[in-house]
Design goal:
Elements lengths: L3 H12 L4 H8 L3 H10 L17 H10 L4 H10 L6 H11 L19 E13 L2 E12 L5 E6 L4 H15 L5 E4 L6 E3 L6 E2 L1 H10 L2 E4 L9 H14 L8 H16 L10 H8 L15 E6 L5 E4 L2 E4 L8 E6 L3 E6 L2 E7 L8 E2 L21 H9 L4 H11 L4 H13 L2 H14 L4 H16 L5
Parallel strand pairs: 1-4, 4-7, 10-14
Antiparallel strand pairs: 1-2, 2-3, 5-6, 8-11, 9-10, 11-12, 12-13
Length: about 475
């Protein structure tokens, strides 16, 4: 069948006065073909209307398609068994043209982004060889939509804490942030709703507000809305991870960062530039990072066990022995586990990413067996020094009093000093001697002994 341009040329030559024979000779066509075009008197190509063998069986095909659960092989077998004379290819072609069992594919669209307008974040599982073992890891990725700058890292799990750690590193890598961070409907960020009705978790909303951007989720099932970040996962799996192995998690993330630098500097035909070149123009549109933001950490309240450890994510970290049985606060950061007693840092460990169930000890925390605790150097309080100077006779009672209160004898010493200042020496020494003999350390009762002796010796009670 002649195409539309050939038909238009035949009609034009006929208008110029050329004969059918001349037109056929010039265009190397048959005279019958030229006559057919001249009879139609139009350059439009006519549609061929052919009867299909499956047309008489249309209703039967619809019924069998429903009964056979969409299996056209079974539909063809049933039609042939019922006496229909048509091939399987004729059946499938008829179903395609009639739209039986097939949905018309919508045309794909394009999204155009201005510099600094949007970045896309998502995660994807991959198999990665780390320390000689094939592990299932979570690959977190962030892509700037205008320049296509890429940053990704690996995590054993991906919680809200890990999400904040990753986004902090990514935003520092880009030295700025876009207005919108497009995500899928992940529970890590989403509290409720989907798409435009998505409400982020207050913790994540506060994190985004600190950096000056907002989370936005694409509609459910519309994964193409975040195609820039989705497409990069295939590139990471088939290029970066192909044939690579890593010593540990730090080595994997260090190589991932170096590979991002390399890929972002490569020229791309579709962009007519490299992402790094486009980023030079986009960088001025990014929102600058805050001058200072508090470090990302996960807070735990723990009780130090009698072995001198606290448990975080099935890993046990050592604590100095003087804090056995006490309540401590543990701050889990990206790289370390910091243990606080009140406002003071008492221990710091390198964070272990995976749950190993092992103990991680610092040599200064636990002493070898049999050595016990080293005695602390004596550092007498001002109250104790005054008492020893004024009443050296009560030194044994002072030692027993300090041992009884186990390092918390400041208040008892102050009260004993007040007794020395308020009462005569003789009844005071006699009462302290009695208290030393019977192991009496309740200073209120000691004071009652002094008052009783004063009553007997200095006051006479008349009948």
């Amino acid at each position: 069948m002649l195409d539309q341009s050939t038909r238009a040329a035949i009609l034009k030559l006929q208008q110029q006065g050329h004969s059918i024979r001349g037109i056929a000779r010039a265009m190397k066509l048959s005279r019958g073909a030229v006559r057919q075009v001249l009879r139609s008197a139009t350059e439009l190509v006519p549609y061929l209307v052919r009867s299909e063998k499956a047309t008489p069986y249309r209703e039967q095909i619809l019924e069998l398609y429903e009964r056979c659960k969409g299996n056209l092989v079974r539909v063809h077998e049933e039609l042939v068994a019922a006496g229909a004379q048509l091939s399987y290819s004729a059946l499938t072609a008829f179903c395609r043209r009639q739209g039986i069992g097939q949905e018309r594919k919508p045309a794909v669209g394009e999204y155009h982004f201005e510099p600094g307008q949007e970045m896309q974040h998502d995660t994807s599982p991959h198999r990665v060889e780390i320390a000689g073992q094939l592990r299932l890891v979570q690959t977190a990725s962030l892509v700037l939509c205008y320049s296509r700058m890429l940053f990704f890292q690996f995590f054993p799990t991906f919680t809200r804490f890990d999400c904040k750690v990753f986004l902090t590193d990514a935003l520092q890598y880009f030295a700025g942030t876009c207005q919108i961070c497009m995500i899928d409907n992940t529970h890590v960020v989403v509290l409720q709703g989907t798409g435009r009705d998505m409400v982020p978790v207050p913790e994540m909303a506060a994190f985004a507000e600190r950096y000056g951007f907002g989370f936005q989720a694409h509609e459910k099932g519309d994964a193409n809305r975040s195609a820039h970040v989705e497409r990069r996962f295939s590139y990471i799996e088939n290029n970066f991870l192909a044939g690579r192995s890593f010593q540990d998690w730090d080595d994997a993330n260090r190589q991932a960062r170096a590979w991002c630098d390399q890929v972002n500097a490569q020229y791309r035909n579709k962009l007519k530039a490299s992402p790094r070149e486009l980023f030079a123009a986009e960088r001025t549109y990014l929102k600058p990072l805050p001058v200072w933001v508090p470090p990302v950490y996960r807070l735990h309240q723990r009780l130090v066990d009698m072995a001198g450890y606290v448990s975080i994510n099935s890993n046990r970290y050592s604590v100095p022995e003087e804090f056995l049985g006490l309540q401590v606060e543990v701050r889990e950061t990206k790289e370390s586990v910091e243990i606080y007693r009140g406002p003071r840092l008492i221990a710091s460990h390198r964070r272990v990413l995976e749950a190993t169930g092992r103990k991680y000890s610092l040599p200064e925390h636990h002493r070898p067996r049999g050595q016990g605790l080293k005695p602390k150097p004596s550092d007498s309080s001002p109250e104790e020094k005054r008492l020893r100077q004024e009443l050296p006779e009560i030194a044994p009672y002072l030692e027993a009093l300090k041992k009884h209160y186990s390092g918390r004898a400041t208040l008892p010493l102050r009260r004993l000093l007040r007794l020395v200042e308020d009462y005569p020496r003789a009844p005071l020494l006699e009462a302290i001697a009695t208290a030393t003999q019977y192991g009496l350390f309740d200073l209120e009762r000691v004071e009652n002994l002094i008052l009783r002796k004063l009553t007997r010796e200095y006051f006479q009670i008349l009948p």
